[in-house]
Amino acid sequence: MVGKRVHRTKEKRTIAYFDYTLMVVLIFLIGFGLLMLYSTSSYSAIVKFHDGMFYLKNQLISYVVSFVAMWVIYKFDYHRYARISKVAFWMAMVVMTFVFVPGIGIEAYGARRWIRIPIFGQMQPSEFMKIAIVIFIPALICKIGEKLNKKEGVLCVLIWGAIGAAGVLFLTDNLSTAVIVMGMVCIILFVAHRKTKCFLITGASIIVAFFIGSEFLGKIMKGSSDFRIRRILAWVNPEMYMSEGSYQSMQALYAIGAGGLFGKGLGNSAQKLIIPEAQNDMILSIICEELGIFGLLIILLLFSILLYRIAFVAQNAPDLYGSLIATGVFAQIAIQVILNIGVVTNLLPTTGVTLPFISYGGTATLFLMVEIGLVLNVSSKIKVEV
Fold first, then answer.
1. CA 114/CA 168 separation, integer angstroms
2. Of 110, 122, 253, which Cα lies nearest the Cα of 174?
3. What's the alpha-carbon Rg for the chain, to the nearest Å?
4. pLDDT digit string (tens) for 115-142?
């Protein structure tokens, strides 16, 4: 008699997923950003009669607060945010009107884009709209359902996006953030919609029209006093408008050229003493001067991995809402990185867009970390069999 073998299969169990790779890359980006911020700003802080670590200390405080905010956002189920997303959208619009309130609104560099917050100092209220778009547009798309694939569904999403972008533009006079907001809406819609060909054709047409239109404006609007037109003129012909609108861009190009392949060495930049507020949107040029093209490649690699991990979360999210939240965060970071690099290398007109996790700025840091908290929240709902 031959005995029967009993095959026991091990029961599989599922565990909650946490994207440790995303966190590690984020920490590397933040650490690298803090190092370059100190190298870029230590001298300018002393010139302004601050401690040489003034900007670094402020940024560290911002990151401490931001990590707490990220953790809080991570701990609450992201589906709860869908219920308050429309309220958050209109609250963002209301907050942006505070720039007109005496004693609260702050005017700087000829624009009223900041509000005064007790203890925290100042912040750009337009950042609230980015968060609102990340949670509201996905909720709207989920509510629309199959109608999204019809013209009225697409139009509905675009109208809400246009309202948000118009609020940013006309309330805070911030064209670059308005472009980012509308870009986020379009990318979320592109991912959610079944058909992609029409979106690709439209996007390519807008880009071509922008460059052709810029060249056209550069020839016929030379006498314009509008500052946005002047920026385009300075971009088209930077040498001619060096004293007006292209000074930063030209100095940034000098810095990039001086850096060569491996740079002058950490702390040895000369252009950081010349470029105004180099620790903000022009910090990439100082990185290129001190660390060369090698430093730029490091940044591009880190951002590529970060965006890949966010895309991974979007692709594996348990539902459409979570997937589109991650897509919105992906869109914002990607657009900001592209715009910042484009401006620093003079491929695009000056916009004032900061480099995420690298440039100085407490408001931007806080809201970026909140968005990362949303992505980690979505990732925690992914179930992995072990």
1. 12
2. 110
3. 23
4. 887 666 678 888 999 999 999 999 999 9
